[in-house]
Design goal:
Helix content is 38%, strand content 14%. By secondary structure, it is α/β, with parallel strands linked by helices. It has two domains: 132 residues, Rossmann fold, CATH 3.40.50; 268 residues, pyruvate-formate lyase- activating enzyme (Alpha-Beta Horseshoe). The strands form three sheets. Strands 2-1-3-4-5-6 form a six-stranded parallel beta sheet, sandwiched between helices. Helix 8 runs parallel beside helix 9, helix 9 packs parallel to helix 10 and helix 13 runs parallel beside helix 15. The longest helix has 21 residues. The chain is globular.
């Protein structure tokens, strides 16, 4: 018996479809880890390789975010036309399971590790159900190490992606994390994580923690960072901007090898921050907090949501000037996107402001709702201009010309984003 795991690609002509950085889907490796040993496994990344629709696999398993789901459905329909059993999971399918079921034989809703073995047993018994949803959240101590061997020979830049926690104690209006994982912050035992890191270090010293907030529990994070100290790792993850206020924890992160953090600034407007539920952010402290990151050897990939109700056409220039003054090593500027399952989607639907349900455009770089402080055209044009200006050579010089240990990560990242933006523009 055989399973083919497929990660759907991003459309060409879109930023995420033009990036050449190759990182695999940790969620599929996690499901592979709980697959019974009698099943053989194969993995395909649709972004980089052709799909073999004549495979001898018995089950085709896909996971997709909203912007990838249209491609996932195309792949699923192609395999079902050949009589294959197709299973779909992930954020989008979990929020719109009835839609996903139209293109699959079974939909996995929420965390899949607990229900996956039962799904496979049902398939063997000929009793496969249309929906699988666990009645409880995964106990973090039960999560096995991901089966990264399925990525062998795929040419990825890095396969050392690790998850130590699930959930987020915050509930930002635009975020789909709490809808999927819940607000309860769950943690894997530190000793288990350290054992996994020791094994990964044999292959590559770089690690990316996919946690949505790796420092939400101070005592846990401090224990993890202290355990990592001296391992020779270089790592990146996600943290809120107020992480800068805890100098001891920042020092421990830096000494454990942290090279950079994805940081959600989200807005320079305090009223907008309050409206979106970003209660811990204080825009007036951003410059000092960004400097604190740098003082501890930690670079920043900042994120700023464009198009919130408090935004007017001058938001783009203001954001660019701030990023250069703060010398942010890198940044993304996602257009507010009303993903299924989020509070912001429910609000915009109630206000009659959703203008597109073409899931391909839910990629954070296309306008899918009616903004209040500018036209949709102004939002789209401002976003495109801001991305191009931020990744111009002149802006890169102003932001990262001074030597900093995180330059080995953020230098190539800036060049990669610049090249992807230029390729995207040529396809437009």
């Amino acid at each position: 018996m055989k399973i083919l795991f497929i990660s759907p690609g991003w459309p060409k002509g879109r930023l995420w479809g033009e990036l050449t950085f190759r990182f695999p889907s940790l969620s599929l490796a996690a499901i592979a880890a709980v697959t019974p040993p009698e099943w053989s496994l194969e993995y395909c990344d649709d972004k980089f390789e052709a799909i073999n629709y004549s495979t001898d696999a018995d089950i085709i398993a896909l996971t997709a975010m909203t912007a990838q789901i249209t491609r996932a459905y195309e792949i699923a329909d192609g395999f079902r036309a050949k009589g294959k059993t197709v299973v779909i999971g992930g954020f989008h399918a979990s929020n719109l399971p009835d839609e996903a079921q139209l293109h699959s034989d079974a939909v996995v809703i929420g965390e899949g590790e607990l229900v996956w073995p039962k799904l496979l047993a049902d398939w063997q018994a000929g009793t496969l159900q249309p929906f699988y949803k666990t009645g409880s959240l995964m106990e973090m101590a039960q999560i096995p190490a991901a089966r990264r061997d399925i990525f062998k020979g795929k040419g990825y830049l890095l396969t050392n992606t690790v998850q130590t926690t699930r959930g987020c104690p915050h509930d930002c209006e635009f975020c789909s994390v709490t809808a999927f994982y819940g607000r309860k912050y769950r943690k894997r035992p530190v000793d288990q994580v350290l054992l996994e890191l020791e094994a990964l270090h044999k292959a590559n010293s770089f690690v990316f923690f996919v946690d949505d907030n790796i420092v939400a529990d101070r005592s846990y994070s401090l224990s993890l960072f202290e355990g990592m100290k001296g391992m020779g790792l270089k790592w990146l993850s996600h943290a809120p901007i107020d992480f800068a206020q805890d100098r001891e924890l920042m020092k421990a992160a830096g000494e454990s090898g942290c090279q950079g953090m994805f940081v959600g600034f989200e807005s320079l407007n305090q009223e907008s921050l309050s409206a979106m539920g970003k209660q811990t952010n204080r825009a007036g402290s951003y410059l000092a907090e960004a400097q604190s990151f740098r003082d501890h050897g930690i670079g920043i990939l900042g994120s700023f949501v464009m198009g919130y109700d408090g935004d007017t056409p001058d938001v783009f220039e203001k954001t660019l000037r701030f990023c250069e003054e703060a010398r942010l090593e890198a940044a993304i500027f996602p257009i507010l996107t009303p993903y299924p399952g989020t509070a912001v989607r429910r609000r915009l639907e109630a206000e009659g402001r959703i203008i597109s349900n073409d899931w391909r455009d839910y990629d954070m770089e296309h306008v899918t709702f009616r903004p209040s402080g500018m036209t949709a055209e102004q939002l789209q044009e401002g976003y495109d201009r801001l991305c191009a200006d931020f990744y111009s050579f002149s802006s890169m010089y102003r932001r990262i010309f001074k030597l900093h240990r995180s330059l080995q990560v953020f230098g190539p990242m800036n060049l990669g984003f610049r090249a992807a933006i230029r390729r995207k523009d040529k396809r437009s």
